[in-house]
Amino acid sequence: MAEYFGSCLCGTVSFLVNGDFDNFYLCHCQHCQKDTGSAYAANLFSQSAQLVWRSGAGAVTSFTLPGTRHNKSFCKVCGSALPSTQDAGLLVVPAGCLDTNLSMAPTAHIFSSSQAAWSGEFGELPKFEGLPD
């Protein structure tokens, strides 16, 4: 069984996921664009993995957009996205909050009809190892 460790940006919250992920979706829906401030959300999904809060469970809060199933858990201190358990026991883990290397590649783009006009293939853009001068 796989083990994945993760945490928030400020380090208040840390967690362990025991088990495997079923899917790794890049979601382009407008809700995910709003709550990430980016072109898409990168989330891992599992019906069987178990989430264990290692520290800071009291600093985890959740928001569900009224009238939708869109839910986001985050750290009350720094605002970092954190795992959440959805209806029917579905575990959703934002890929960026993992501290363990993930060998799984994204399995699909979802809600691509809502893709931001400015997102797309950027193979020709310059690349920098850090912040450009």
TrEMBL record:
A Pfam family matched in the record: GFA
Keywords: Lyase, Metal-binding, Zinc
Domain CENP-V/GFA: 4-119
Molecular functions per Gene Ontology: carbon-sulfur lyase activity; metal ion binding
First and last residue of the signal peptide: none
InterPro entries: CENP-V/GFA, Mss4-like_sf
Annotated family: Belongs to the Gfa family.
UniProt name for this protein: Glutathione-dependent formaldehyde-activating enzyme
